[in-house]
Amino acid sequence: MLRLLPMQVLMLAVASLNSLISGWFASNYVGESAMSAVGLYAPVQMLIGALGGVLAAGAAILCGEYAGRNEHDKLRSVFTVNVAAAAVTGAALGAALLFLGGSGMTGFFTEDPLIKPAFDSYIRVQAAGVLPYLVLTQMPSYLIMDNRNRRALASGIVFALSNVAFNIIFVCVMRMGTAGLALASVLGTWACLLVEAECFIRGKASVGFSLRSAEWKELPAMIKIGFPGGATYIYQAARGYIVNRLILSYAGENGLAAFTASNVFLLVFWALPAGMLVVSRMMISVSIGEEDRQTLTDVMRVMFARFIPIQCAVSAVLCAMAVPLTHLFFHDPSDPVFMMTVWGFRLLPLCMPLSVIYLHFTCYYQASGREKFANFLAVLDGVADVVIVSLVLMPVIGMNGVYLANVANGVITVVLIFAFACVMNRHIPRNMEELMVIPEGFGADPEDRLAFTVRTPSEAAGIAEEIQDFCSRHGADEKKAYAAGLAAEELAENIIEHGFSKDSRDHSIDVRVVCREDGFTLLIKDDCAAFDPVAMRELEDRERDAGRVGLRLAFGMAKDVQYQNILGLNILTIRI
Fold it and tell me: N or C: which end of the chain has fewer CB within 10 A?
C-alpha cells in the first residue's frame, strides 16, 4: 500500500491541478465574476464526476474480486462495459450542458447580471469535455492493476502543462475570458485521455475493449456496487448547489469567490485521501475475492497507523499556511474576500483526516454487500449534515458557518461508523474485525490458515516442513502434504535466486496455505519483476530435468493453477 501510494497521489494531484489552474487564471486575469462562474460550475462538475465515480467504483470492486478469483474473461467484460457506459453517459451529459448554456436556461444557478453571461459561456464550452472526462475517470483502477503508474503520472503532467499553455493562449493572449478558461480545460482533458488510452488501444494492457466479450448484465451490478461511493458525490453536487445559494444569500459574491478559491486549491491536496482510497479499494476488493480475512483487516490497520498520521500532518501544514495561500488569489488584506478565504484555508483541511476513515469504510461496506448503510452514510456525508449545520450557523457567524459545517460533517460520519459497529456487535468493538463487522463465516478461521513472509534463503529452507505439518494436521494424505510443502519451498528459493537479484530493492515473498472443505489452496505472492512460473511446467516435465520435484508433484495433483500480476505483485495460486 505504501509503495503504491506516492504514484497514485502524484497522479491525482497533477490531474486536480486543472481546477487550481482555472481558478488562478480566473482570479488574476479575468475577474471575480469569472471566479464565481467557476464556483457555480463546481456542483455540475461534481455531478459529472459522481456519475463517473459510480461506474469507476463498481468496476474497480468487480475487477478486484474477479482478479482475486482469477476470472480473466470477466475482467475484460467489465472493462468493456465500464468504458462503453462512461462514453455514452458523457455524450448525453455533454449535449445537455450545451443546450443549457446555449439557451440561457441557467437561471436556477444565478440571475446575477454580471455572473450569468460568464457562466453561460463557460458551460457551453465545457460541454465538449464531458465525454473524455468521464472515460478518463475509469482508467486509474486498470492502470494500477497493471502497475502502470508512470503512464498515469505522465498523463497527469500532460494535462497540467497543456492546460497552462492553453490558458496562456486563450485567456492571456486572445482574451477569451471564461470561454478561454473552459476551452483550455477541455483540450487538456482530451490530451490526458489520449496518453492514458494508448496502452489499451494498442493492446499492451492486460485488459482490452471487446464488444464481443461484453456481458451487459454486469452494468446493473456495477451501478449497484458503486452507487454508495459515487452517490456521495451526487449528493455533494446537490449540496454544492444549495450551499452556493446560501453563500450568495449570507455572504454575497465575496463569499462565493472565497469559497471557490480555497476549494480549488485544496482540491489538489484532496488527491492524498483519494489516492489512499484508490490503493486500498483494489486491495479490499482483491482480499474479498480471495476471502482473505487477514489482509482485509491489515488494509484498515495500515489506514489508521500510516495513512491517518500522514494526512494529519499535511492538514496541519495547510492550516498554518492559510495567509500565504490566500495571497495566491487575493492581494488586499482589507478586502472582505481576503479574510473569508483565510478562514477557508484554516478550517477546511480539518475535514481530510476524517474523510480518510469515511472513504475506507464506505468502500469496505460497498465491497462486502452492506449497501444500505453505505447509502445512508452517503446521504449524510453528501448533503444532509453540511446543509443542516450551515443553515443553523450561517445566520449567526456568516461564512465560517459553511466551513465549520464541513468539519462537523466529518465528525458525525466517523461517530456513526463506530456506532454501527457497536450496534452490530452489541458491545464496543475490541479489535479491527469487530470494528469492520466482518461476518463470522467470511474467509478461513485462524486455525485453518498458515501464513508467513520469506525474505532470505534460510527462511525459505524451513517452510516445507512447516507447511507439510500444517496440511497433515488438517487431514491431507502424506503425498499431498509433502508436495505442497516442497513446492512452496522450491518456488520461494527460485524467486529469491532469480527475482531478488534483478534490482537493488528489498523484496519479500508472502506464502499462505488455506485449508478448505474441497482441499488446500497454496498462494505465493512476491513483489519482484513479472514472471509466470506456470510457464515453467513444460520445462519441468522434461525427463532430463531432475529438479523441481515438489513443483512437478504439486502441478500434477492440482485441481487448478493460476498466475496473474496485479498491483505489481506476482500471484501464483495452486489448488490441491
Answer: N
Q: Under the phi-then-psi rule, with left for phi > 0, alpha for psi from -120 to 50, and beta for the rest, what region is 355? A: alpha
Residues 498, 436: contact at Cβ < 8 Å? no
Q: What does the alpha-carbon distance between residue 286 and residue 64 come to, in Å, rounded to a whole number?
A: 4
What's the pLDDT tens digit per position in 311-330? 999 999 999 999 999 998 88
Q: Which amino acid is located at 119 in the chain?
A: F
Closest by alpha carbon to 236, among 386, 359, 113, 352?
386
Least Cα distance to 575 among 524, 519, 535 occurs for 519
CB 432 within 8 A of CB 300: yes
Return the pLDDT at 168. Answer: 93
Q: What is the DSSP letter of 571?
A: E
SS3 454: strand
The reported pLDDT for the residue numbered 537 is 57
Taking Cα atoms as reference points, which of 370, 536, 372, 519 lies closest to residue 437? 370
Domain ranges of the chain: 39-250, 253-443, 446-575
Per cent of the chain over pLDDT 90 is: 25
Sequence-ordered list of residues with C-beta below 8 angstroms from that of 253, at least 6 positions apart, any chain: 32, 36, 112, 115
DSSP string, 389-427: HHHHHHHHHTTHHHHHHHHHHHHHHHHHHHHHHHHHHTS
CATH class assigned to 446-575: alpha beta
Rounded to an integer, the average pLDDT of 444-452 is: 77
- The confidence score (pLDDT) of residue 88 equals 95
* Cell numbers placing 292: 482473505
pLDDT of 454 strictly over 80: yes
Mean pLDDT within 215-228? 84
